[in-house]
Write a structure and sequence with these properties.
- This protein has ten helices and 13 strands.
- The longest helix is centred in the first third of the chain and has 18 residues.
């Protein structure tokens, strides 16, 4: 059962990140990563290759800023990725997870001023495993929400609720055991249909054309990124987020997902440039630029029956706004 072996590998990898002293991290990570493994991270860190670069470029600086850093895991599952359009398996195996990294914000991080107070940094990760080694990773931290915790607001006030990043309400999202294969297969087909037969069917004139009401429960909990916030119910999701997203990016389409997987009743997607669009309208205070944009994001869903009841959403907002000509890190410094 390769998925179970892959999950054990990634579980041990995350444990090593959390357990090894900072100076031993390069060698520790090297036990799990292929020598040329590529880590795709959030702007301004971006891509790192190999265990030395990952330890020195990301984990050691993060642990310097949060010396008592502790991982809180909310979701954990894996699976075989489907081809994004025709639904056939593409042969790539992934393990993903999300939760919070908690610690005392003791030292400035990427220019965000330390508060000396506890902080909870939201994280999401997809690891591709091949022959018992991690060969590729997609990873995001919610820097905008960390800025909010530091009292800095680089975007207009969130229309949704800030800081709402819980585990599954049923506390059933950490799937260490094998799941029913038929349920997993159905979840994978369901999420593919939702994205490519639903979201991408939008006619740019009516929200209903995306068919989201067919796929999302009326009481869905949609946990959005910093700058957008959580929407607690489908009506909130449409009013607080969905009406504004298509206004700003009317021709948006999901095109180039790197991973689309499911296990049990949970599904996940990772896409660097996974959504492409043209910036045609105001968005979070930024006027239209007519620029083409590519969105880096991660998504996790929980399905009950035919509808999604929870959706955890990550968007690299610093990367998105950089494409609109706005440097949010520079805005933070002023």
């Amino acid at each position: 059962m390769p998925n179970q072996e892959n999950k054990k590998l990634v579980w041990s990898y995350w444990d090593a990140i959390d357990r090894y002293p900072a100076g031993e991290l390069p060698a520790g990570l090297g036990r799990y990563l292929e020598s040329d493994a590529v880590w795709h991270g959030p702007d301004p860190i971006n891509d790192l290759v190999g265990s030395d670069a990952l330890a020195g470029g990301f984990w050691q600086p993060l642990r310097r800023s949060f010396p008592d850093l502790a991982r809180q895991l909310h979701l954990f599952f894996g699976g075989l990725s489907t081809d994004r359009m025709d639904g056939n398996n593409d042969g790539r195996m992934w393990v993903c997870g999300t939760g919070l990294l908690r610690g005392t914000f003791a030292v400035d991080y990427i220019g965000i001023p330390a508060t000396g107070e506890p902080a909870a940094v939201r994280w999401g990760e997809f690891c591709r495993v091949d022959n018992g080694r991690i060969v590729e990773t997609f990873f995001l931290l919610d820097f905008i929400d960390l800025m909010r915790q530091a009292g800095i607001h680089v975007l207009p006030p969130s229309r949704g609720k800030d800081g709402v990043y819980p585990p599954s309400r049923a506390n059933d999202g950490v799937l260490r055991d094998a799941q029913d294969a038929r349920e997993s297969d159905y979840s994978l087909d369901h999420i593919r249909r939702f994205i490519f037969d639903g979201l991408n069917a939008d006619d740019q004139s009516r929200l209903a054309s995306m068919g989201m009401a067919d796929y999302f429960h009326p009481k869905v909990r949609w946990y959005g990124p910093g700058g957008i916030g959580a929407c607690l119910g489908f009506a909130d999701l449409e009013d607080l987020h969905q009406r504004r997203w298509p206004h700003a990016f009317p021709d948006r389409r999901v095109r180039d997902l790197d991973a689309l997987i499911a296990e049990g009743s949970f599904s996940g997607a990772a896409g660097w440039s996974g959504v492409r669009a043209t910036h045609k309208g105001e968005y979070l205070g930024g006027p239209a630029t007519s620029r083409g944009i590519a969105v880096n994001g991660l998504d996790f869903w929980k399905r009950v029956g035919e509808q999604y009841v929870e959706n955890w959403v990550f968007v690299d907002m610093i990367h998105l706004f950089r494409q609109l000509g706005v440097d949010l890190l520079e805005r933070m410094r002023h």
